[in-house]
Amino acid sequence: MISSPRQADEKDGPKEVHLVLLDNGRSRIYSDPELLATLRCIRCGACINHCPVYVRIGGHAYGTVYPGPIGKVLEPQKEGLASHGELAQASSLCGACGEVCPVRIPLPSLINRLRYESVRQDSSTTQGAGSRRKWQEAYAWKAWSWAASHPRFYNSGAQMATRVRKIVPNKLGAWTSVRSAPKPAARTLHQHVAAMGVDNE
Ligand code: SF4
User: Fold this and answer.
1) For residue 73, which atom of ligand 1 is closest to its CA?
2) Number of neighbours of residue 73 by Cβ within 10 angstroms
3) Whole-angstrom Cα distance, residue 130 to residue 87?
4) pLDDT by residue for the chain (201 residues), tens digit each?
5) Which of 8, 50, 131, 186 has minimal Cβ neighbours within 10 Å of its Cβ?
6) Residue bearing the CA closest to ligand 1, atom 3
7) Among the atoms of ligand 1, which is closest to the Cα of residue 100?
8) Measured distance CA(67)–CA(47) in Å, rounded
């Protein structure tokens, strides 16, 4: 209960009252018409218990106060995308969290929005927007987009990959410390379906 400063006819009470609200960035969240749904959370934990990522890795792996789907949405907004943006990547986007949320927070679309904002700055209200954009990755996707839209180049590249599969190394740094290195297939998809007698020209 917070009272006002002492009134002229009152014998006790404070001379002045200062109210300091520590909202941890929630006013900023509230100012965004889409992201403000985050603040409807009643901390029931339903999304957490239905999240396939959370049930496998547990709460401590997130390293934040709020784990699970709501943590993936709230923490990057509170702490900024530069330091906590990767949490939004820890989702298969299966949609279970959005379905079980009793207050209908559209968690999957908010996760998508934060993923987008972490690599783009346009029309963003989230701290650190665009901070996770890597120019190498941006160029890699541009090159992929070009190759995938030029069938001759793509097909000859795919055929070349089948020929060099034997010399693709089995160790690819830290990535292969817990998993096998992927190898190009022995035949391209076109060769495979052609061998099955399907006309794919
Ligand atoms: S299910 Fe909805 S209300 Fe419950 S913790 Fe998750 S986001 Fe919050």
Assistant:
1) 7
2) 30
3) 15
4) 788 999 999 999 899 999 998 998 899 999 999 999 999 999 999 999 999 999 999 999 999 999 999 999 999 999 999 999 999 999 999 999 999 999 999 999 999 999 999 998 776 778 999 898 889 988 999 999 999 999 999 999 999 999 998 898 888 888 889 888 888 999 998 889 999 988 766
5) 8
6) 41
7) 1
8) 10
User: Ligand 1, atom 1: nearest CA belongs to which residue?
Assistant: 101
Q: How far is the CA of 20 from the centre of ligand 1 (A)?
A: 27
Cα 164 to chain center, whole Å? 34
Which amino acids bring their CB within 6 angstroms of ligand 1? 41-47, 70, 100-103, 105
Other C-beta atoms lying within 10 Å of the C-beta of residue 8: 4
